[in-house]
Amino acid sequence: MQQPLLEKLEQLISDLKQKEQAAVYTVPDEVIVSINKAKNLERLLLEILNTVQGSGGVDIVNILRREFGISKNLTDRFAKWAAHSKEQFADALHDAIDRAEIRAGKQGLFFAGSPGKQEATEALGLLKEIAHAAVRRQFNPRYAGPDVYVDMQDKLLRFHELPNTFPGSGTVKYRSLLSENRFYAMSGEDQEITEALKASTRAWYQRSSFDFLESREWYPDYGYVQAYLYLLTVEQLDRLRDDFIRYIGEEFTKLKVKPELYRAESLKSMLETALSWKV
After folding, report:
1. In the chain, what's the furthest Cα-to-Cα distance?
2. What angle (nearest 5°) sits at the alpha carbon of residue 7, between those of residues 6 and 12?
3. Is 171 exposed, middle or buried (0-12, 13-18, 19+ CB in 10 A)?
4. Helical (H) or strand (E) element with 76
5. Model-level pTM greater than 0.90?
6. What does the pLDDT average to over 12-39?
7. Is the confidence at residue 20, as pLDDT, over 80?
8. DSSP secondary structure string, 140-172?
9. 217 vs 143: which has the higher pLDDT
10. How far is CA 37 from CA 86, 115, 122, in A?
11. Angle formed by the axes of helices 117-139 and 83-99, to 10°?
12. Are 25 and 77 in contact (CB under 8 A)?
């Protein structure tokens, strides 16, 4: 009896897998209606912003599930959505993004200070452009090339260059935005896109008046430096290296007064790493 039952289960599993492979999913009309009626869309803009500037890649499907009540069963099968459903859904999202505003009571989501009218308008425009680009990348394979990623990165940098955008005017906010490791994750580990992001971001840094990458204190630890070397010229790297070596020399002087094996080994590792940096 066990063998026939096992065979029946195996056949059922095979049939269900074939059915799943052949299935095409459509988005219910009520979901499109809910997007068309959606108001108070600051959180949608914020979640897309955080996803795009984060280190987990640019996938906004789960955001859409949370914001518009789409079933997990449907979002998990996004790749199998019917083409007309993707197009209809994307159009509704673009319309929603166009309607989005930042109400006075919600400015704290995006600004650490108090923006003037011009800054608030510019920030909202950049947020919308970032969101539009993320939607295009998600729903249309034609917009999954390097240019789209470079454009999103450019808008992110411009947004954070504004004087009052969250989390403030300090340069620490650039740690994630400029990291080579983030680009690799953001691009889905695509080397061509990663290199395009590095080239455009390096050009941005070299055009800017910033010099924080040349200071030891900007980095949480010397092990972080490698992810930012692509941004530097030889001269800038020399200044950064000199800053680390100066610090190591000062710490060595203290170490001679009170020798500690762990600290000595740590300084040696830091010096060896600093001497190995190249651009």
Report:
1. 82
2. 100
3. middle
4. none
5. no
6. 88
7. no
8. -GGG-SHHHHHHHHHHHHHHHHSTTBTT-SSGG
9. 217
10. 18, 29, 25
11. 180
12. yes
